[in-house]
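Note to self: keep these together.
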Amino acid sequence: MKLSLAADLFAAKGISHDNVLCALSRRVGAANGITAAALVRELICDHTLADERRLRSVIEQVRREGHAVCADPANGYFMAANAKELDATCEFLYGRALTTMKQITAMKKIAMPDLRGQLGLPLQPTIQGESHE
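Structure:
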């Protein structure tokens, strides 16, 4: 698969899948966490908001691959040292997702279950005398 020019440039700068995983492999446990800004500086000796966005995108990708990349506002990014740290990050991510969903339901003025139609099953009109057994 051909990477876009922008992706090639980011990878050349050092904010790549493998480089991020390598850097985080040296940061196991919350006590060894690193902020996004500091991790970007560690990877490319520079820092811009665009670089932080790229880092977050790469972290999202490695998480989708199943890597236990944890983060919290107090400690920054780190690899889970144990199940408790992983669970705490999963709860944090769940809470963030739930907050987003609540904002959407409030703006659309609909109930959470109706957001994606979980309870809104379409009913087929029935013909009088027709049996559904």
